[in-house]
Design a protein that fits this description.
Number of helices: 2
Order of helices and strands: HEEEEEEHEEE
Distance between the termini: 41 Å
Strand content: 35-45%
Largest sheet: 5 strands, mixed
Oligomer: single chain
Shape: globular
Number of strands: 9
């Protein structure tokens, strides 16, 4: 029994380390926290778009995990291009699933990737009637 516990713990630790290494190589991550209860917001749909010639083109999408994170939102095996990007959090869907009315059906966060850092992190702090975002690390 003890050997099984040690083996399972090792597997779990290995999986966490592999996920961290994968995420570290991706240039974009997001994190959603619900300010109403202070907990991560799992299950939020998120899209990533790049502005090309004045128009938005979707390049990726994902769903936040149990920690409220998407650790690798940028398309894998590609280099982050400089430019304007829009991350849109589908907060209306999430609040509806949690039987909570909200003023914001979606929250777009537009940012400029200027190449000054190798990784961009976009946290979103959200409540039914307010939100805040910033450049994280």
């Amino acid at each position: 029994m003890q050997k099984t516990k040690i083996f399972m713990t090792g597997l779990l630790l290995n999986a966490v380390m592999a996920a961290s290494a994968f995420a570290a190589g991706n240039p974009l991550s997001v994190h959603v926290l619900n300010l109403q209860d202070g907990l991560p917001s799992a299950g939020v749909n998120v899209t990533l778009e790049k502005q090309v010639d004045g128009k938005w083109t979707q390049i990726s999408k994902g769903v936040t995990n149990e920690q409220g994170r998407i650790t690798a939102l940028y398309p894998t095996d590609t280099t982050l291009e400089k430019g304007n990007y829009r991350v849109t959090f589908q907060t209306g869907e999430w609040f509806r699933q949690h039987n909570t009315p909200t003023f914001f059906p979606e929250i777009p966060v537009i940012f400029n990737a200027d190449g000054s850092v190798p990784h961009y992190h976009i946290p979103l702090l959200v409540s039914p009637y307010g939100f805040s975002s910033y450049r994280g690390n």
